[in-house]
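SEQUENCE AND FOLD
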Amino acid sequence: MHFEENFTYHVYNRSNQIVFKTTENYLYFLRKFREYIFNYVDVLAWCLMPNHFHFMLSPNKEATILVKEKHLPNTQLLSKQFGTLLSSYTKAFNKQNGRKGSLFAHNTNAKQLNQVAKHLQGAMQLSYAVTCFRYIHLNPVESNLVKTIKDWEFSSFKDFANNRNGNLINRDLAMRTVNYDSDNFERWSSIDMNDDDINNIF
């Protein structure tokens, strides 16, 4: 992963197995995110799913500093911190479930979102950031985990919909970046997206 200061990124990782089995698993992962990642980013949106996670974030200057890693000499601090987060969570999950080995089978990916979908024209153009922001919140519905977007506990949707007073997200930056409809947030978030738009954020 490569990050630039103040750019917007979709950071995600999907496992081949369930990584969040209980409510405490979800909450523990978020606590570890605060411990290892939060000081280096502004979070615009997030969602934890049973076998994967999504974060839409903007790194600060410190996040982009190169750190000394034995096998990866050009690793940025934020990339190292994500590795530490997953390693720490895996260790706790393995202990809890009596298992060994890797939990997240794939590398964590980061897609830079500071672009506009080129196949759309004029006023209908959507930024990658808007698509990503809406996709992250709609993901549990699209995956048939819940019937409505407001029913999933483990995302930032409830914070933006003013159903919860979470402090993980930067509301002001999210508004400047995606200009979401705060008065009709659930309806705005639930509008269907086409596959071409979604492909642009991965």
Remarks:
- The radius of gyration is 17 Å.
- The first helix runs from residue 23 to 36.
- Residues 130 and 178 are 5 Å apart (CA to CA).
